[in-house]
Each structure stands twice: as structure tokens, then as C-alpha cells.
Amino acid sequence: MRSVLFDHVWKKFYRGERHDSLRDLIPGALRTITSRRAKGELESEEFWALKDVSFEVKPGEALGIIGPNGAGKSTALKLLTRILRPTRGQCQVAGRVGALIEVAAGFHPELTGRENVYLQGAIMGMRRTEVVSKFDEIVAFAGLEDFVDMPVKRYSSGMNARLGFSIAAHLNPDVLIIDEVLAVGDVEFQERCLERMRWFKRGGVAIVLVSHNLQSVVELCDHAMFLNGRVCAIGATSDVIGRYVRDAFAASGEARQGEIHINSAELRHLDGTPVAEPVEPRTTLRVTVEFGVVVEISDVTFAFLLHRSTDQLTVYAREFSAQELQLASPVPGRFSIQFQFQTNLTRGQYHLDVFVKHIPSQRCIARLRPAGHFTIAENRTWAGVADLNVSATVSGLSIDLPSAVRPDTTYLPDPAAPVK
């Protein structure tokens, strides 16, 4: 059973041509009638926004769609909600759809928030009695009790997004389609939205989410799709995000821009095997970076940084001077630096960033990112970045305890405990 089906979909657009007068419309119509071009052929002002894209989402699943700006992510959602029609292929959505694709889409700027709740509810297929019964809950979830009778033209983008999501969230949809607009909400509201979507998942609602916040995609989605006009990768969320991060920096020329070049980097275990599978917390890894000196230069540092891939959070940063590494003045030639570190981290995707900086001018000479990418596999913690290896001790209890539990006992995290 499928709630969402995207079957070999192609979508093209015109790059700039607009028939806004009779003089332009008549020649354009004649060209369309007399044209004998093949169905899949493009004219000079046309381009493919989506090329042969396919995916499906079952009830209770969440698909995250990620990719750079202009990759066709919002176009895919507009096709699902029938705002647009595909050029080729088919889109099918089963059941009632709750959608939030653009901030204030469907809102009338001159109407109040109250009036727009009824208007948007009607557009989404809600009966008036249903809106009346849920009105207070909708407004409370959006946190707009004091502004519900104000015209929405005076709302901020965040207020618009909160009201739009709240209406969609109280539609009791079979399919929920959400675009990047949640990014304009504050942190507390974003967490409420994520919790609401988790609740929907548990209730069997299919979710399609477009977001640049990869951490939200990791937390919510069972699988992901990396889209860039066509499907670049689809599958397990961690694998797709890893591919996206690697591709995001692949075109950078920073590695070979100055007096010192970064030729290559290899991330391996201490026994020399490449890091290909997820690793456990507190594993020791080593990244070997090969540099090439083009012109002798002094007063440089070599930086090692670790980022969480899902939100670009800098987890760790450290610079090593050339003197520390006994490279007083690197001369033309090649040399390697081995950075060894421990993965005292919680579950997630991480990548390494290595660069060379000229100290007097603070100029970045060369940079390679990612210099390595890895995934931490652990299920003991709820959230966070650092693995603090926390233990807990019970003492001083005066009540009777089961024989299996005694005071003055230290309890270590259970690796088999379910993730919460």
C-alpha cells in the first residue's frame, strides 16, 4: 500500500518567455501548433527542472528530500499537491493531504488570522464544523492567541508559517507535505512541529519533508532522497546525507589555491583499513593528509576541524603550527601529516575539514572538505554531540528494593537500550 507515488516524473519550465500581450500570444500559439518536435525535446527557452524522478512513501514512513538550491525540491512538492502538472510521468497521493509549501500560501493578506483559518481550512477540504471544533487548538498550537484578530499582512514570516503549519497539522491528514518554510519558526516551535510529525508517523501518516536542516531530516525521516534535477541518491538517511555532504564540497578548488596544496586525504582505522562502516563511540581513527609545497613559505598553521554534517555544527577545532610539527619553513616538495583522534561522539554523521593558514595575513592557503566522512553508531543517548560516558550511582535509599537492585551500585548505559 502506497500513500505517495512519484513515477518517472519529468517537469520542464520556460526560462523567461511570457505571453502577456496579444502580439506575443498569437505567434507563440502558432509555433506550438506548427511545431513537430519530439515530445521529450526542449526548445531554446525551456529546461528540465526534474528528470525521471521516482520515489514512493508508505503509510507511517517519512521521506526527506535534500539537495542544493534550484534542485527541484519545491517543484516536486508542488507536483504532489497538484499545484503543477508533470510534463511526463505520474504523481499519485492517496487520502487527505495536509500541505505547507510556501509561507502564507492561501492566506488573504487583508483578512484576519481568524478569517484565514476558516479560509485555509476550506481550501484544505475541512468542513466548517470541523474548523470550529479545532479552532482554539489551531490558534494555541501556533501561539497566536493575542494576534488572531489582526490582519495577516501584519504578521511576520514566522507567524505566517506557524499558523499555516498549525492548520495543516490539525487537518488529520493521510499525507503531510512540508517545505523549508519551517525554518522561519523559532527553535521552540520547530521542536513542536517535529514532535507533531513524529506523532503523525506513529499514527500511520505518510510524510514528505523538504529541508536544508539535515539534523531534522535525520531525526524524523526513515529514508532520504538527494535530488539535483535528477535522483543522485535514495535510501537510508545516513547514507544519502553522506553522499550529499561529499558532493557539496567536491567542486571546490580551495585545496590547490596557494603556496601549499592539499593533494589527498585518507581516513582509516589504526590497523590501516578504510573507514567504510559506522564506528562505535571512543574509536581511535587516523586521517592522513598529503601536502605539496609549491613555494617556500613560513608562519603557517595546519588546522584540523570536525563538523556534524547534519547542521554544520563545529564539534572540534585545533590548529598546529609548523614549529609544533617540526616544519620550520616548508620547502618545495611533498609531506604528510597524520591527525589521530578519538570519536567521543554520539550517533550521527560527521566530516573532517583540513586547511592551511598563513598567520601574519590570516589568509587561507588551501582547504580540503570533507577530508573524511564517518558515521557514529550508538543508541544509548537521547541527543547531543559529545560522548561523556556518563555513569549513575544510587546511594542512601531507605526503601526495600528488589534483589536485583542494590544501593551503592553504579549503573552504566545499556548499549542494547532502545533509542528514545
Summarize this structure briefly.
By secondary structure, the chain is an alpha+beta fold. Helix content is 23%, strand content 33%.
Work out the strand percent: 25-35%
What would you call the shape? globular
Count of DSSP helices? 8
Number of strands: 18
User: Could you estimate the helical fraction of the residues in percent?
Assistant: 10-25%
Q: Which segments are poorly predicted (pLDDT under 50) over 5 or more consecutive residues?
A: none
Structure write-up:
Helices cover 23% and strands 33% of the residues. The strands form five sheets. The protein has a six-stranded mixed β-sheet with strand order 5-6-7-3-8-9, with helices on both faces. With 420 residues, it is α+β, with helices and mostly antiparallel strands. Strand 15 and strand 16 form a beta hairpin. It folds into two domains: 4-20 and 39-246, 3-Layer(aba) Sandwich (Rossmann fold); 252-376, Distorted Sandwich (Coagulation Factor XIII, Chain A, domain 1), CATH 2.70.50.60. It has eight helices and 18 strands. It is globular.
